[in-house]
Amino acid sequence: MNLASLFSHPAILLQHWIGAVGPAGAYLFLFVAIFLETGIVILPIVPGDSLLLAAGVFASLSKELSLPVLIPLLAVGAVLGDQSNYFIGKFLGDKILKSPKWKKRLSAKLARSEELLNRFGRGAMFFSHFIPVGRTFIPFLCGISSLPWKRFSTFNAPGDCIWAAALLSVGYYCAKIPFVKKYLGLIALVAVGGLVASVLVSFFKSKRKKGRGRPPAGGGL
After folding, report:
1. Widest CA span of the chain, in angstroms?
2. Is 219 part of any domain?
3. What is the reported pLDDT for 77?
4. How far lies 167's CA from each of 15, 32, 129, 196, 208, in Å?
5. Positions in the chain short of pLDDT 70
6. pLDDT value at position 205?
7. Best CA proximity match to 59, nearest among 99, 121, 11
8. Which of 61, 84, 86, 56 is CA-nearest to residue 164?
9. pLDDT digits (tens, 9 = 90+) for 69-123
10. In a domain, 30, yes or no
11. Which one of 37, 53, 106, 181 has the largest count of C-beta atoms within 10 Å of its C-beta?
12. HEC secondary structure over 36-48
């Protein structure tokens, strides 16, 4: 069976993937991916929203994955990721921001997250996972600012749980709509294509910025 036929029948593609890694492996992969999405401030590479929607679709198409298992599992992954980011900010934040490399790379996103915190306060902590730039950097900033852990967790953890449950449920129930189910293969191809394109664009933008920042050859002589 070729790649095109697999994408035209997502249930078959899903069956092959789960058959290769097993249900436990699939659950572990999704948990680790959601944890990494906000767990390491210098590595915000996992598209958490898309992953949760896809996991909901997987649970709808496959008997091997269960929505009642995915919701608490991935909610815990999101909460632990934010806890990790909070403590990275608390204990390593100053060292990270003293590094010219990371300060330059993170400064714009941190400034935007700080603006959100100043404007919305507790609301920003609660809704941080629904804000693409905020969900990685708001917990980090809360740690740097020495905000008490209990206060951070009180407002942040419920938002994480709602984020995971909402997007998993949207993916699960949308996959049952006849029109969506009919064109799910095309939607999957577009989604994968968009994800690959966004990664490539980010990669080449980073390369271009590095090239511009280099001094001309012999310029220091």
Report:
1. 68
2. no
3. 94
4. 22, 17, 11, 21, 35
5. 1-15, 41-47, 132-133, 183-221
6. 65
7. 11
8. 56
9. 999 999 999 999 999 989 998 898 878 778 877 777 777 777 777 888 888 888 8
10. yes
11. 37
12. HHHHCCCCCCCCH
Residues in the chain: 221
Residues 6 or more apart whose Cβ sits within 8 Å of residue 83: 139, 153
What is the structure's pLDDT at 218? 43
- Structural domain includes residue 24: yes
Burial of 49 (0-12, 13-18, 19+ CB in 10 A): middle
**In a 3-state reduction of DSSP, which class is residue 214?**
coil
**Contact at 8 Å (CB) between 55 and 100?**
no
d(CA 145, CA 154): 16
- The answer to whether residues 134 and 113 touch, using CB atoms and an 8 Å cutoff, is yes
Whether the model clears a pTM of 0.85, i.e. scores above it, the answer is no
Range of the domain at 133: 3-213
Count of structural domains, the chain: 1
Which residue has tokens 């206060």? 151
Q: At 32, phi and psi to the nearest 5? A: -65, -40
Within a domain: 70: yes
